Amino acid sequence: MKESLRKLKILQLLTALFRARIIKILIPVVILVIIFIQGRKEIQHINLARVFFELRRMPVSAIVEISLVAFIAVAAMSAYDYLLRRQFKLDVDWKATFRYAWIANTFNNMIGFAGLTGVGLRAILYKKSGVPIKTMGSAVLFLSPIILVGLSLLGWLVIFGVFPAERLFDAHPWLRWAVWGISLYFPFFLLMQRSSLFAKWFHKGEGKLPWNVVIASVIASFLEWACAAVLFWLIVYHDLDHLPFASVIGVYIVAAIAGIISMAPGGIGAFDLTALLGLQTLGIDATPAITALLLFRIFYFLIPWLIGLVLSAFEISPNRRQMKDMITNGVDSSRNAWIKFWGWPSQFGLLGDLGAWALGKLVLASGIILLLSAATPGLINRLRFMENILSLPLMRFSEQLSVVIGIMLIIVSRGISLRIRRAFIWTAGLLVAGAVFTFAKGFDYEEAIILLVVAVILWVSRARFNRESALLSSRSVGIWVVLAFISSLSYYLVGAQIHPKLLRHLPARAQEWFLNPHEYAVTAVIAFISALVLLAAIFALRPNRHIEHLPDAAELEKLSEFLKQEQGNLLSHLLYLGDKSFYWAQEDRVLIPYSRVRDKLVVLGDPIGDKALVGEAIQEFQRYADHYALTAVFYQVSPEYLSIYHENGYNFFKLGEEALVPLDKFTLSGKSNQGLRTAKNKSEREGQQFEVLQPPFSNELLNELRVISNEWLGDRKEKAYSLGWFKEPYLQQAPIALLREAEGRILAFATLAPAYDNNQIISIDLMRHLNETPNGTMDVLFVRLIEWAKENGYAFFNLGMSPLSSVGENANAHREEKLARLVFQYGGHWYGFEGLRRYKEKFSPEWEARYLAYPAGMPLPILTIDLVRLVSRRPAKVEASS
């Protein structure tokens, strides 16, 4: 019984780990640990100095041959996309299909995430050519089970001895089970393709796949893995002792299976260690084996991915509207001719970000290349040639500058991904300077050409860098400092480790060309400090600290004139507080009030102005926010504008409901209103007086109201942003309702907030009272205000919003709204949400929903924290900042 319980607990633990997705992380880790334990002896004998030296001295003819086969191997993966193109009748030309395939496959090889990278990129790229997302979803389901078929078929060839791997199995028997497991997938795939179950789940009931499609699928997958295996053999053939073709292919197949089982991107770690162990069984030392594996990674993964980065950067080009804006901003139109020459289609938002991301990674790779080039030994004949042209001190100085520039490129690559103009200017200069100095330090023309190519790509894409700045947070600064430190440390470790092992094999004269370990350390420190100092000096990613211009008296006067012509909303009166910036869109015909919190511009309510212009105004404001790497969010928007926000890419979260009392239906008669009648009658018997005063107000009255306000606040602090606070210039903008006792002392007061909608709605704003006021005082004040509004011709009286009211009640509501519902029901200890709703229900209001409109993909919990920070700002800080 105890044993059964123990097994049950273990099963429950594994189930919990699976649900938490921890097992997906543990499996590759366990695989890597097993392989490392079994191969650690061989790994210890690796000579990194010899590895880098062999990489640098490879013959040009071998590089050309390997490059050609690598291109064929990567291009072979496009067979999947041509299969999709034919199977789903995609209206995409063959050149675009090849480009899309190259980008998706190379990114998937490098980044992986269980194939999700390739899936996502295919969906994005094919959407450009008009392929619906639904169609691509079906295509991805069709493609997913095909990819492993070719490797499974090759696994059978290993089992039957066509590509022998017995030596590897004898040394590491567990690999035999891995090969059997993957090999059994091939018959399972054939059975699955011809079953009704597969047709039901993967083909939406359209029937079994024809045999010609199944065979084409097997050929496409086999072609991918076979070409990669041939490339692996070719690299081993050139780098090692001409090992037999069949044995090397067998090692590759087993290593590829280990990489697939590990679920790591590109099988990194598991593939490399297994291939190393396999080559060891063929009599190859660890150092040349590692050299071959690095070459395979470079030619099959890294270089194709860099080409994919270039293609993805060029694949994205501005649309007409964006191009018009760029020309208006002074950017020349030469890029337009380039786009027409290449025939690449236009851009939509997500792809624009992808293009900038790709450019940033190209710059990052350029920085890494500079560091590796400086840390690894150059070829002696090149160094001798450069010494005849330049002096040795100048060559060493060029090397040190290359390190500084490399670290700066790594750091500034983030600014390229964010499309910051200042970062683009400095990056272009750094790339050109890096090309010059890496050439001068040792005639390294390969690295110089790469840097110049990246510089050209950056120049061609310069129109994309339309952002003035980005947010400079302490977290960002910390990340840059850590990146600079890691880069400098990596340079030192690689250079210092290679140096002593290399110099033993070089003549005394040649040793003068290389830095000693002490000089590597000094160079690393200088590079680290110089990069930070220069970055701080040029402010490549400096935020624009003048994004918020709080309105002055002239701006508030402009607001008053605007509200006389255009209809406002329930939040318009809060603009007179002066704590929100004004963005005038559509040639001053639409007003968007906002405040900034971290990397967000939070708009209060809906834009004010002609509704027909609101959609264009939102897009204009989005471009304005994007110009500073910020995001536009709309807070407390009304249902009337939801379709406009939706068309501009926003999701919604219900914040609560506004309580609007219809004045034509309001009455104190009836049993349900007995409490209100009682409070009013008691007030009249006690001689309490109600009055509504119009501005301007005397200093004596405002001083008396301030005393009441301070007593009501006590230890609490005023809120800001979406709530009014006691600010005398603000109070002078609207009527104030007073409730006095018989002797004339003010018991309570409330400020009113017009909606600037031709006297249709008026809202209550500040509500303050003395602490010793009798029960029911605020009920009396509300009733008298409602009656006053009715007498003055208003249609509705707004009691304000009830936060989280009626949120998440539906069983199909989003989980965030269901969580908010729990807060509404059980959060009375902190705020009293449900109690506030019940209190306002006494006045029989009509409830109107209010929403938060936020861009798709923005994490709602983080946004909520930022909104809490914004609403909780103290007015004193706001006024001080202005």
From TrEMBL:
It catalyses: L-lysyl-tRNA(Lys) + a 1,2-diacyl-sn-glycero-3-phospho-(1'-sn-glycerol) = a 1,2-diacyl-sn-glycero-3-phospho-1'-(3'-O-L-lysyl)-sn-glycerol + tRNA(Lys). Its EC number is 2.3.2.3. Residues 563-854 form the Phosphatidylglycerol lysyltransferase C-terminal domain. InterPro entries: Acyl_CoA_acyltransferase, L-PG_synthase/AglD, LPG_synthase_C, PG_lysyltransferase. Its main location: membrane. Keywords: Antibiotic resistance, Cell membrane, Lipid metabolism, Membrane, Transferase, Transmembrane, Transmembrane helix. It is found in: Cell membrane. Belongs to the LPG synthase family. Catalyzes the transfer of a lysyl group from L-lysyl-tRNA(Lys) to membrane-bound phosphatidylglycerol (PG), which produces lysylphosphatidylglycerol (LPG), a major component of the bacterial membrane with a positive net charge. LPG synthesis contributes to bacterial virulence as it is involved in the resistance mechanism against cationic antimicrobial peptides (CAMP) produces by the host's immune system (defensins, cathelicidins) and by the competing microorganisms. This is Phosphatidylglycerol lysyltransferase. It comes from Paenibacillus wenxiniae. The lineage of its organism: Bacteria, Bacillati, Bacillota, Bacilli, Bacillales.
